[in-house]
Please model this.
Amino acid sequence: MFLLKNIIVGQSGGPTAVINASLYGVIQEGQKHTGEINTIYGMRNGIEGFLKENVVNLSSLSEEELTLIKTTPAAYLGSCRYKLPEDLSDAVYPKLFQLFTKLEIQCFLYIGGNDSMDTVSKLSRYAKSVQSTICFIGIPKTIDNDLILTDHTPGYGSAAKFVAATVREISTDAGIYDKESVTIIEIMGRHAGWLTAASVLSRTDKMANPLFIYLPETAFDTETFLSDLKAAFTHTKNIVVCISEGIRDAAGTFICEYSHSVSVDTFGHKMLAGAGQYLEKLVKEKLSVKVRSIELNVTQRCSSAWLSATDINEAISAGSIGVQAALEGNSGKMIAFVRDSNTPYQLSYAGVDVNKVCNREKKVPLEWISENGTDLEPAFIEYCLPLIQGAPEVPTENGLPKFAFI
Amino acid sequence: MFLLKNIIVGQSGGPTAVINASLYGVIQEGQKHTGEINTIYGMRNGIEGFLKENVVNLSSLSEEELTLIKTTPAAYLGSCRYKLPEDLSDAVYPKLFQLFTKLEIQCFLYIGGNDSMDTVSKLSRYAKSVQSTICFIGIPKTIDNDLILTDHTPGYGSAAKFVAATVREISTDAGIYDKESVTIIEIMGRHAGWLTAASVLSRTDKMANPLFIYLPETAFDTETFLSDLKAAFTHTKNIVVCISEGIRDAAGTFICEYSHSVSVDTFGHKMLAGAGQYLEKLVKEKLSVKVRSIELNVTQRCSSAWLSATDINEAISAGSIGVQAALEGNSGKMIAFVRDSNTPYQLSYAGVDVNKVCNREKKVPLEWISENGTDLEPAFIEYCLPLIQGAPEVPTENGLPKFAFI
Model:
């Protein structure tokens, strides 16, 4: 007898502007397989909400609601930061699988970053250990672009586009007074500088800012920084500097740690804030020029203003290909992006071993960073530029973006 | 003998997203009057650059460059914060008028806010005192919307739209975790809460955030704030609060002054920062919940992402009507907006006495603020909503907004 399958999808970790586009891809693909899929469930607040049986039925979402979901930032289903125990003999695993059985789940799709892939890895390994046939698939998502075994991640393109456009706007703003000034823009990126690197795209043939770009991949030296600024003032009046929140010195100490104590999140990551503020004070004290620090803050991950159509479309594809992979019986895989060609930009999709992805980080290659650590090489621009192309239509109402809410 | 006139235009004060649209309006209108106008000059960095004879010829700007100028944020000509002496017998006045004579200037148009209208006022009064026939016209510009004798100011609509859209995005982002949280968004507005008030437009029938909105017009009480948050947690998990940078307590002390010393700008205005950061620390300490403060910072005044077509078009009209007014021999006037009707929204333009405008501030009427000082009344929404309508096309190149640079 042929049994209809139920699938469940969840979102986990920090928001991106296109995490809901992947959800859209999952639901849309799921709805196509009426012969194979019975119900498409969504877990509220990821695996944490699922443990409380907080589940919604997504099968019958209207076309109108689905269209809104596609360009709604953050996580439509809600998210969580919940780490499953390392020990697969922990009681939470049989509890989860009882709930899967209760809902007759055959395919489990989890949209998230590094920590979410850890969840997919553990669940797929536990499934194997108990001979469960449930398939667990990870759909990548992170503005940080730091997942390995994939050319890039959904969410990065739109965040990179937001950073590049916003740094260009701020640089335009910073240049209006005939008075020396330094503007420091702090961009998200704890250990990998992918997002900060995108600020190089802000430059035009008539605007050299941001003049300096600092990533966590190379050591930041405050003395060199100050002398570089001084030297730059001989030819430039208004200097814009972009820094990753996670820049650190040669000893490995985060620059922000010189001014703030840092706290630790549930995954043990240091919660950073304030490298920009620290450098603002330093420049003011040492160079006595007008200085301002700007934190792009959460808007860089949740803005619908500078969505990349390329990013949205790839996020949708990752979701739909994830469903196909699960229906074909694959498990313990993450949907990865393979760049077949740069000019013209062409992408294909592959399933990679999620166990190899989780708990590892892909950094910006050192050969893409200038030798003095203050700029990016053309190879990075070639890599990044295709990812920010195109602008999807965002539905509006009364002049403002219209979003979907559960 | 009929003499051709030269006109000069300058920009002054803080940037807005549409100050260049007014410049576009001035140039476009000037180019139409080929029989009356010989050369359209632009002063670099306002009156301060003009004193250094830093002047450019704008007469022959190409249609392509003009189109770019229209949606370029910040000040294409550069800006200044330069206060002319109160004493009209100061030597700077004859010096300026010698320069006007040298360039055969007949019309002087100055695009700016309160302090720029002060410049127009002084120059027009000095002109009168020396029987000069040069006409001085002010074109309003400020995201603060705090100029009197005008329904609103160019720049406000686009900034209000940016605030409303961005607060909606941040609220969507803030709501994803199943865990109590407070997000405090600090919005520009030293003495008037117009821009912060626009955050009320972020709400939807499915999203009640921002739950609390505090303007400088009413006294902020930290104890009431904390007890309001506590009460709100009984029905809402993720609370978004919007505050003006200039909120103050009943004694008139800026809230930010409780954590920071404040510095003073060249006009004697207090330079504020940190009300959001102060409240973040307070909430963390007193309520022990997850809390984050976000400063929208300069992006709210220079973003081309959420430009209002209404705002752009009115800014252009203000510029072109300014040229017409000057050519007709008016002086000492600011181009003001008169709202003839709200439904449908209809606007007309008038010249008002610039001497009455400068050095005064229009605040949000108290009857538009809820009695408890945490919300806006429907009358404000009716006022603000027409100003954010429509989206102009922003030229792009390689996926990013393309701007004009001198």
